[in-house]
Amino acid sequence: MLVSYHRVNELGVITIDNPPVNALSYGVRKGILEAITTAHADDSKAVVILCEGRTFIAGSDISEFGKPIAEPSLPQVNAAIEALAKPVVAAIHGTALGGGFELALSCHYRCALESAFVGLPEVTLGLLPGAGGTQRVPRLIGVQAALDMMTGGQKIAASKALKLGLIDRVLSGSMKDGALAYARELVASGTGPRRIRDMSIAPESFAGEAFDAYRNRLNQRKRGQESPQKIVDCVEAAITMPFDEGLAYERSSFIERSQSEQSAALRHIFFAERQAPKVLGLDKNITPRSIDQVAVIGAGTMGGGIAMSFANAGIPVTLLELNQGGLDAGLALISQNYSVTVGKGKLSEEEAATRQALISGTTDYAALASADLVIEAVFESMDVKKQVFGRLDEVCKAGAILASNTSYLDVYEIAAATTRPLDVVGLHFFSPANVMRLLEVVRAEQTADDVVATVMRLGKRIGKVPVLAGVCFGFIGNRMLRQYAREAQLCMIEGAEPGQIDGVLTRFGMAMGPLAVGDLAGLDIGYKSRQALTAEQRGDPRSYAIADTLVEMGRLGQKTGAGYYRYDSHTRARSANPDVLAVIKAEAEKYGVSRRALSDEEILNRHLMALINEGFRILEEGIAQRPSDIDAVYVHGYGFPAYRGGPMFYASRLGLDKVYGCIDDLYKRTGEAYWKPAPLLAKLAENNQSLEDWVASND
Ligand code: 3H9
To answer: Which band of pLDDT confidence, cut at 50, 70 and 90, is reported for residue 205?
Structure first.
């Protein structure tokens, strides 16, 4: 029974029970409609709608989108609720999201536990609220607040929802008792139904121009995304059209959105994030180790960001730096980061102070003796890492997990520096570590299963998207990045200017272009790591000659005011650097490259195909567990636009035969081994199979 109806004296109670999150699948919609019909016919005086389990309805069943919608649709259910002639109360605990909150908005009154959240996150799935949200919310809280809520998609805590007017009462104690008492009060006071559809929108200064200004701001903040703009259109319709026409407009916009490429991509990412922490072949009954105390070695930008990630989740952290000066600087940087967040209004001063108090500093390895997990974030050198792990082996308690934040190095070899390789794992955070959601979990040959299970669970606990990777140079993300970065360098030496390359990729939706990223990170970083490689490992000199020359000229990127671009010393504004063109031309001449005009299409194609081809190799070698893991890596760690679903999803949508043809052309044209189509890609394309077929055959 997904939905049940029973009487508690004069009240009718509709209970939804559809684990895990009470999503509004077909059976739930049908069950609610039937229960409403029963309530309509009986002599109950008011109706309460509540949910079993961990949460109120978390929205429509996302897996049903893109397929034909079986009736009753949610708008039909909501219309029936709203039309009921006796008061209906939604009783919210956990999260009332999307269609779940829209159902609550169709109820005449809403109460929520103080721990509850409400929200309309459809925008994060490339959708818009499609069951009355865009028409009811502006009527309830005004246009500006409605636009902010729906285009932002954030969850709103019950106390704030009460202030905004989204809910009517905050409950403490038992949700069911509180909700029934509220309904009884309504009955006792003779309060009838209050329908949002009958409310008028508060007169405001929000007219045509204000909508246009809002659209323009969204265009900058949510570049390339279609849904936010459509939400604005629907809210404008709430003002210009009568309620039912507005609803019809919303409905057709919602259907159009649910069939869009962007929504398919974002839904793919939603499930990819939730799939990634699941480790294939791991015993489900394994008991993870408990992690109550963490230590981080290295108080630089990375170490500090990692420490903040744990403190933000309420886990105490000890930060170790070899000398007091370095430690003080690291702690000061953390303090500054928290101040900036407070300054932006994203965190209260008290909360920032509580979090900061969880981070303590030390210069003494002995202070790590009680840590359950130690993460090393020191200089990327095998010798240094081995020394650190040797030292950890001496001081850490038995059963402590020893993790390296290495971004390229062999975790087997690092583990061999200890007497307990079973406890060693790679935990690769991405900078800024307190912001970026990706966490690559690198499983070395001997890493124990319970260690893997523990860090996967911990990753989720600190709000990251943990993705399992095998050991190879650069794991999933950086291994693919090398191919992509190579194409940026080659396109430059062959004829494109930095601005053209970055422009093509940012228009595609990347958060930043590859050359601007290089300037931001510092060109010396790549330079130093190349110095540690053999000529063979460094590869084709055309793929790093320009970068090396710039570094040797002292142009290290933003920090020196010049790299591939020039940077204003005050505003950091970026402009083209004409001197770089001379460097590019000189290097082209040195390596006998005759420069030509490259089309935007060629640039985009080469960058994406480089990622995709390597992605297929990574899959075939078992470095990544599944294609969607690679997509999660690229979206959460490398600024790949979520609304394009990640490189593997993008390849699937293009069609593997087309992708194969494109990569094979590049191979035939250049003769370069790295363009040889990955065998898995070739096999799937030849057999007319998709990545889904491949995943299914591996299950
Ligand atoms: C919508 O409502 C459109 C309407 O406007 C219009 C309609 C006409 N559907 O996240 P978790 C699964 S759009 C299907 O790990 P948590 C999830 O895949 C929807 N499945 O738990 C996972 O499965 P598994 C708007 C769903 O406690 C399991 O539940 N709503 C859905 O960390 C647990 O999920 C949203 O966008 C769903 N709606 O977080 C809300 N939701 O165990 C989406 C979850 O097999 N959901 N699953 O891997 C969330 O934000 C979080 O799941 C929530 C719980 C906060 C609720």
So the answer is: low
For 152-162, write each residue's pLDDT tens digit. 999 999 999 99
User: Is the CB–ligand 1 distance for residue 51 below 6 Å?
Assistant: no
Q: What is the rounded CA–CA span in Å between residue 274 and residue 251? A: 28
Cis peptide before 466 (omega within 30 of 0): no
Q: How far is the CA of 122 from the centre of ligand 1 (A)?
A: 11
94 Cβ inside 6 Å of ligand 1: no
> At 515, which helix (H) or strand (E)?
helix 514-521
Distance 127 CA to ligand 1 centre (A): 14
271-298 tens-digit pLDDT:
999 999 999 999 989 999 999 999 999 9
Which of the residues are catalytic? 102, 122
Q: Is the pTM of this model over 0.85?
A: yes
Ligand 1: centre distance to CA 23 (Å): 7
Single out the residue of 406, 485, 389 nearest to residue 440, CA to CA. Answer: 406
Tell me: the pLDDT tens digits for 38-91?
999 999 999 999 999 999 999 999 988 878 889 999 999 999 999 999 999 999
Nearest protein CA to atom 48 of ligand 1, as residue: 274
- CA-nearest residue for atom 39, ligand 1, is 21
Average pLDDT rounded to a whole number, residues 458-463: 98
Q: Which domains does the chain have, with CATH numbers?
A: 3-258 (3.90.226.10), 294-469 (3.40.50.720), 490-597 (1.10.1040.10), 601-698 (1.10.1040.10)
Q: Tell me if 469 CB under 6 Å of ligand 1.
A: no
Could you give the count of Cα atoms lying within 13 Å of 370 in the half-sphere of its Cβ?
A: 6
Q: Which residue's alpha carbon is at the smallest distance from atom 46 of ligand 1?
A: 58
Q: Hey, whose CA ends up nearest to atom 9 of ligand 1? A: 61
Centre of ligand 1 to C-alpha 120, Å, is: 12
